[in-house]
Design goal:
The chain has 413 residues and is an alpha+beta fold. The protein folds into 3 domains: 32-78 and 163-256, Gyrase A, domain 2, CATH 3.30.1360.120; 79-159, Alpha-Beta Plaits (2-Layer Sandwich), CATH 3.30.70; 275-395, Elongation Factor Tu (Ef-tu), domain 3, CATH 2.40.30.110. It is built from 10 helices and 19 strands. β6 (120-130) and β7 (133-138) form a beta hairpin. It is globular. This is Aminomethyltransferase family protein. InterPro entries: GcvT/YgfZ/DmdA, GcvT/YgfZ_C, GcvT_C, GCVT_N, TrmE/GcvT-like. It comes from Mesorhizobium marinum. Residues 57-294 form the GCVT N-terminal domain.
Length: 413
């Protein structure tokens, strides 16, 4: 009786937590000590099991750091695979959409891969580090699938997410900071180039890539050298306005650049619970990647058949919406009555001075029928939601282009 009474007086959640059930474990990246020291808001989210910042100090000012100074964002949780061996190129050509034979050593390209039905499993960046050595970076984990796909190829596939730390340095002063940090020759990197530089007793791989549509670079280094790399960049960037940022600011910048996110703007084939949620490359704006001339690859027959038979059912479009209230997750209508799609990402763009969005529409809407589109927005006004119907028009992506992104050598901001 006494034991029962004691248990009853203990809060249920506390008793369960004491047994370990409600403990949410979050992995720390190699940069976590520096990020924790800068965190002012205790605003975290889970990125692949890692504790990652939504915002560190002010999401608006973090966004403007990307566009007017330089931002530092920890991309260590991004899944990274080392793929190497005599058949590495042939293997990657077999599973990805683009022709890997055209990817020279020291270059990077954006690619995607599909299942046998032509539905996108994920998208990511492929780095050709050497003739027979690659790094594949993506959002989701695919190690078992990669191992199964490698059967018959003389190739090794190793996940190195924890072993390799990554940083994204983006913004107009990014080049000047790297030069100030002593990375001699960084001015020679063109967009999608990569090169190796010395850092302490090791090597840092720097590519001119990013997720912001701005001048920017991504740096990869062995995890044990992570903190010293962070300090090197922060010291060099003090006079150039370098700031650490979280995902909220990055997400607005990627939307302005018209870039998509797996399981946000489209459901990956492995995560979709319903058959009508999966997407083919042409349905999410990735049709330009498909190289039908390179030989067989996963999903080739299905993609070619869908194109030939005109059975593609969806299209991903950029929208400009009247007003300044973001339309995130808004339903898209034709002639205000017929539901034709859904907004997956939306924001007011301070740079473009437009209310922008990415939406998935059911064809022929967004394809041959592009007029009289509306979005349904629910706006909070004095503690009440009001339904607003706002006109939307289809516009090209990206929503803005910055010359400094591609200028070589970059300007000295």
């Amino acid at each position: 009786m006494g034991t029962t009474a004691k248990k009853a007086s203990t809060p249920y959640a506390a008793r369960i937590a004491a047994r370990g059930h409600f403990r949410t474990l979050r992995l720390d990246t190699p940069f976590q000590p520096r990020i924790d020291a800068l965190m002012k808001r205790n605003d975290w989210y889970s990125w692949g099991g890692y504790r990652a910042p939504n915002s560190l100090w002010d999401e608006e000012l973090e966004y403007f750091a990307i566009r007017s100074q330089a931002s530092l964002f920890d991309i260590s949780p991004m899944v990274k695979y080392r793929i190497e061996g005599p058949d590495a190129e042939a293997f990657l050509n077999r599973i990805t959409l683009r022709d890997v034979a055209k990817l020279r050593s020291g270059r990077v390209h954006y690619t995607a891969w599909c299942d046998d039905e032509g539905h996108v499993l994920d998208d990511g960046t492929l780095f050709r580090l050497a003739d027979n050595r690659f790094r594949l970076c993506c959002q989701e984990r695919h190690l078992p699938w990669l191992h199964d796909s490698a059967f018959g190829y003389d190739v090794a596939v190793v996940e190195e997410t924890e072993a390799i730390a990554g940083l994204s340095l983006q913004g107009p002063t990014a080049f000047a900071i790297l030069r100030e940090a002593g990375f001699a020759g960084i001015e020679r990197l063109k967009v999608f180039d990569l090169a190796y530089f010395q850092h302490q007793n090791g090597t840092v791989t720097i590519s001119r890539t990013g997720f912001t549509g701005d001048l920017g670079y991504e740096l990869f280094v062995p995890a044990e050298l992570a903190l010293s790399l962070w300090d090197r960049l922060m010291d060099a960037g003090q006079a150039r306005g370098i700031r650490a940022i979280g995902y909220t600011a990055l997400n607005r910048a990627r939307l302005e650049a018209g870039l998509i996110v797996a399981n946000a703007d489209f459901a990956t084939a492995e995560h979709a619970l319903r058959q009508d949620r999966v997407r083919m490359p042409d349905e999410i704006g990735l049709g330009f990647m498909v190289d039908l001339e390179k030989g067989h690859f996963n999903g080739r027959r299905a993609i070619a058949r869908a194109r030939e038979n005109k059975t593609l059912r969806h299209i991903l479009v950029g929208l400009e919406i009247e007003g300044n209230i973001p339309a995130e997750h808004a339903i898209v209508y034709h002639r205000r009555t017929r539901e034709v799609g859904l907004v997956s990402a939306a924001a007011w763009s301070p740079l473009a001075k437009r209310n922008i969005a990415i939406a998935s529409l059911a064809r022929p809407f967004g394809d041959t029928v592009t007029d009289d589109l509306w979005v349904e927005i629910y706006a909070m006004r004095e503690l009440r939601y009001e339904k607003l119907m706002k006109r939307a028009k289809i516009v090209p992506r990206p929503f803005m282009k910055l010359d400094r992104r591609t200028a070589t050598p970059p300007a000295d901001f």
